[in-house]
Amino acid sequence: MASPQGQDPFQESRLASDAGATFVLESKGKWWHAGFHLTTAIVGPTILTLPYVFRGLGWALGCLCLTVMGCVTFYSYYLMSRVLEHCEKAGRRHIRFRELAADVLGSGWMFYFVIFIQTAINTGVGIGAILLAGECLKIMYENLSPNGSLKLYNFIAMVTVVMIFLSQLPSFHSLRHINFASLLLSLGYSFLVVGACIYAGLSKNAPARDYSLESSSSARVFNAFTSISIIAAIFGNGILPEIQATLAPPATGKMVKGLLLCYTVAFFTFYSVAVSGYWVFGNESNSNILKSLMPDEGPSLAPTIVLGLAVVFVLLQLLAIGLVYSQVAYEIMEKQTADVRQGMFSKRNLVPRLILRSLYVIFCGFMAAMLPFFGDISSVVGAIGFIPLDFILPMLLYNMTHKPSKSSLTYCINLFIIIAFTGVGIMGAFSSIRKLVLDANKFKLFSSDVVD
After folding, report:
1. 309-345: b (≥16 Cβ within 10 Å) or e
2. How many CB atoms neighbour CB 99 within 10 A?
3. Is residue 94 within 8 Å of 241, Cβ to Cβ?
4. 206 Cβ partners below 8 Å, 6+ apart?
5. Whole-angstrom distance between the N-terminal and C-terminal Cα of the chain?
6. Are residues 127 and 364 in contact, defined by beta-carbon separation less than 8 angstroms?
7. CA separation, residue 336 to residues 17, 19, 163, 171 (Å)
8. SS3 29
9. 399-435 pLDDT, tens per residue?
10. CB pairs under 8 A, 24+ apart, for 155-158?
11. In 3D, which of 268, 287, 276 has the Cα closest to residue 46?
C-alpha cells in the first residue's frame, strides 16, 4: 500500500492531543448507534422528492435506478467499512474520510480534495436542512394564518436560533438518542405521506394521472440524469468513516449491522413514498410531495391533521439531519482550537466552541434565506459531491488495500462501478447545472418561496 511521501500529515490524528477525535468523534458507540446515525444521514425528507425523480424516469427506469443505486451504495459502504477495518488491524485506525483516502492512495492532494467535497456536501445539507425546516414552519403558519405577514426568511431565522442551541451538543455520540428519534420520525412521516397519497388517489378530487415523459429525446436524457443525481444525493452521506469512528473499538462487523438497520428502514420508506406519490400525481409530481398534497389553489387532497402531523415530523427530523452533517465541520474546528488537556467543558474549550459553532450555523441560516433554490442545488450536490465520495472512492480504496486479483469478479465489479459512475457523475453534473441555468430566471434573493 502506498503511503504519503515525506512528513505524515495524518499522524496527529492518532495522538492524544487531537481534540477533534477526543471530543467530537469519541469512540463509545454500539452498532445500533451507528445504525441510528446512518439512518438520519440517509433516510431524510429528501425521500419526499422521489415521486419527482420518477417524473424524470418513468415507472420502469425509476424503479430500476432506485434499486440499482440502493444496491451499489450498500455495497460501497460495506467495502468502505472493510477498508477501515483493514487499516485498523494494520495499526492505522482512521476516523476521518480525508485521512483514510490520502493514506491509502498515497497522495497529499487527495486529503484536500476530500475535505473540499465533504465541506461542500455538509454545508449544503446544513443549508438545505435549515431551509426546508423554515419552509415547514411557513406551511403551518399559512394554514393557521393565511393572510399573515411573516416571510420564509423569518422562519429560517427561527430555525437558525434553535440550531444554534442544538449545535452545542459536544460530540457525535451525544446525538445517538436524537438520531433514534429521527429514525422513528422518518418512518412516521413516510407512512403518513403514503396514507395521504392513497387517500388522495382514491378520492373524488383525485388529480388526472399522466405518466408520459418529455416529448424531446434530449430533454428526456437530461431529466433522467438529473433524477439519477438526486437519487445519488438521497442515498449518499459522505461521512461513513466519521460515523464508524463513533463505534467503540474494535469496530469489526459492527458497521455492517448498522448498515442493515439503515437499509431496512430505507427499503420500506423509499419505495412506499416513491410509488404512492408517483401513482397519484404522475408527471405533475412536485419536488416535495407534501406540496402536491397541499396545492396553493384549492383544498388539501388529504386530511389536514395527517398532513400537518407529517410536516411536524419532517421539521423535527430536519433538526437532527442538520446536526449530523455539521459534525465534520465541528470536528475540524475542535481540532484546531480546543485544548484536550483542559477537558471538554472547560471554559478554555467551551467559549471557542460556542462562538465558532454559532457562527457556522448563522452562516448556513443566512445562505438558506438568501438562496432558497433547494431542488436544483440538491441534484448538483449529488452529482459533484456524493457520487465521487460514495460511488467511486470506496471501490478504489478497496482495490488498493485488499488487492483482489485483476481477473477476480470483485475487481471487475469495482472497476465497472468506478467507470460507470464516473460517467454518470459527469453527465449528472452537466444536466443538473443545465437545469440550474434554465431555472435561473425563477431565482430571487431572499425569496419567500422555495424554488423547486
Report:
1. ebbbbbbbbbbbbbbbbbbbbbbbbbbebbebeeebe
2. 25
3. yes
4. 200, 280, 301
5. 45
6. yes
7. 11, 8, 22, 16
8. strand
9. 999 999 999 999 999 999 999 988 888 887 787 777 7
10. 156/130, 156/131, 156/365, 156/368, 156/369, 157/365, 157/369, 158/134
11. 287
> Grid cell 431551509 — which residue?
131
> Do the beta carbons of residue 213 and residue 54 sit within 8 Å?
no
Q: CB neighbours of 41 closer than 8 A, spacing ≥ 6?
A: 237, 239, 243, 321, 324, 325
Enter the C-alpha cell of residue 371. 438562496
CA dist 264 and 190 (Å) reads 14
CB 352: neighbour CB atoms within 10 A? Answer: 16
Joined grid coordinates for residue 69? 443505486
Reported residue count of the chain is 452
Instruction: Please answer whether residues 25 and 111 qualify as being in contact, where contact means their C-beta atoms are separated by less than 8 angstroms.
Output: no
Q: Has residue 277 got a pLDDT over 80? A: yes
Q: Could you give the angle at the alpha carbon of 429 between the alpha carbons of 80 and 117, nearest 5°? A: 45
DSSP string for residues in 287-340 = SSHHHHHS-SSS--SS-HHHHHHHHHHHHHHHHHHHHHHHHHHHHHHHHHH--G
C-alpha cell at 93: 485506525
Query: Which three-class secondary structure state does DSSP give residue 25?
Result: coil
User: Residues 65-80: pLDDT tens digits?
Assistant: 999 999 999 999 999 9
Strand, helix or coil at 247?
strand
